[in-house]
């Protein structure tokens, strides 16, 4: 009797499972339901294609950025004015933001969130990050007196540490344990990649180069955190409007830098003196890189940005072998691998946080 009761109970459970499976099958059997997955597939393909394009663009732009700066030098120095080049970068980004706004106005019309007219209280916060980016961008040129293109790509990742620490101090955001581990690995990877086994000097980059890299990281981190705080203060505000005002102040500060540093040279030799095709490509690269980062963060995610940064480091090293006879040492391979792992761990820790 007990055996029969258990067997009947098992039959009832099997019947219940069959009923559940039949219900699941019916939920996918209706004609309207069959149409949705097809539409979903086309949408997913469209998103995947757009994500792939912006990621590929960011990777190429990032990897070629340092190469173009080094390539634009003649006999170890810049024949063009660095301040005028930075001014044109800001002007081009400003024009691209205005073009995007014009398209939005034509489609959606002018609204409270996408109009350029605003109050001084809103605009007055943009000079601070614009000034920080000015100094950081100027240092970006002068650091190449001490580092090569692949080394620059490695040291540039130090801004992850400054950004994380400033996140904790300014925005009061906690960091996960994985992120702290990633910071330690990042320092170890940057140091390992700079080891020099071909001379008495331990590190390839001298002290001046490291100081410039650290200052650049601090400026970049503080400017990024401050800009994020400004943008998130009014989330409904169109990002192109915010970028426009940031780039306007960037143009103003770079104009001041031209007057202070290169006024005589510009007046005597001309604004575009020393410019070449490489210089124009470099300016275009810097402007499009800033736009590409925004597009990746909008259409993709932070993981995609991280992967593109890691791949860009390797591409820069490979291209530098052919262009500048860069020597790929074992220390560089190990260091770049550790840096790539640390950058990935940082992004994972950010998601977990």
From TrEMBL:
Output the InterPro entries linked to this UniProt entry. EmrE-like, Nuc_sug_transpt
Give the chief site where it resides.
membrane
Q: Which GO terms describe its molecular function?
A: pyrimidine nucleotide-sugar transmembrane transporter activity; transmembrane transporter activity
Q: Which residues form a coiled coil?
A: none
Ranges where the record places region Disordered: 1-31
Any one GO CC term of the record: Golgi membrane
GO terms for biological process, alphabetical:
transmembrane transport
The UniProt entry lists membrane topology as: Multi-pass membrane protein
Annotated localization: Membrane
Biased-composition ranges for Basic and acidic residues? 1-10
Tell me the keywords, alphabetical order: Membrane, Transmembrane, Transmembrane helix
Chain ranges passing through the membrane: 53-72, 178-195, 207-231, 243-260, 272-294, 306-324, 330-348
Q: Does the keyword Phosphoprotein apply?
A: no
Q: Which family does it belong to?
A: Belongs to the nucleotide-sugar transporter family. CMP-Sialate:CMP antiporter (TC 2.A.7.12) subfamily.
* Protein name, as recorded: CMP-sialic acid transporter 4
């Amino acid at each position: 009797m007990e055996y029969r009761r258990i067997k009947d109970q098992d039959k009832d459970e099997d019947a219940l499972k069959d009923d559940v499976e039949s219900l699941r099958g019916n939920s996918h059997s209706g004609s309207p339901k069959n149409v949705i997955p097809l539409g979903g597939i086309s949408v997913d393909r469209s998103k995947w294609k757009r994500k792939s394009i912006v990621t590929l663009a960011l990777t190429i732009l990032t990897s070629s950025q340092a190469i173009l700066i080094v390539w634009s030098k003649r006999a170890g120095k810049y024949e063009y004015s660095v301040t005028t080049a930075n001014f044109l970068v800001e002007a081009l980004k400003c024009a691209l933001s205005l073009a995007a706004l014009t398209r939005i106005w034509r489609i959606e019309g002018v609204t409270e969130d996408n109009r350029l007219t605003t109050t001084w209280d809103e605009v007055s916060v943009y000079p601070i990050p614009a000034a920080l980016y000015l100094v950081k961008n100027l240092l970006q040129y002068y650091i190449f007196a001490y580092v090569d293109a692949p080394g620059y790509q490695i040291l540039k990742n130090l801004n992850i540490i400054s950004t994380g620490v400033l996140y904790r101090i300014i925005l009061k955001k906690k960091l996960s344990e994985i992120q702290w581990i990633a910071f330690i690995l990042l320092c170890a990877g940057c140091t390992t990649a700079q080891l020099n086994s071909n001379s008495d000097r331990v590190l390839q980059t001298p002290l001046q180069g490291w100081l410039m890299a650290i200052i650049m990281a601090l400026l970049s981190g503080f400017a990024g955190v401050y800009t994020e705080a400004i943008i998130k203060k009014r989330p409904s505000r169109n990002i192109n409007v915010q970028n426009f005002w940031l780039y306007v102040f960037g143009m103003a500060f770079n104009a001041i830098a031209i007057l202070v540093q290169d006024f005589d040279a510009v007046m005597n030799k001309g604004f575009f003196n020393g410019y070449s095709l490489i210089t124009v490509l470099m300016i275009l690269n810097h402007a499009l890189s800033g736009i590409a980062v925004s597009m990746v963060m909008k259409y993709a995610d932070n993981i995609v940005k991280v992967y593109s940064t890691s791949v860009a480091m390797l591409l820069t090293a490979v291209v530098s072998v052919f262009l500048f006879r860069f020597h790929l040492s074992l220390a560089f391979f190990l260091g770049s691998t550790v840096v790539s792992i640390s950058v990935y761990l940082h992004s994972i820790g950010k998601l977990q946080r």
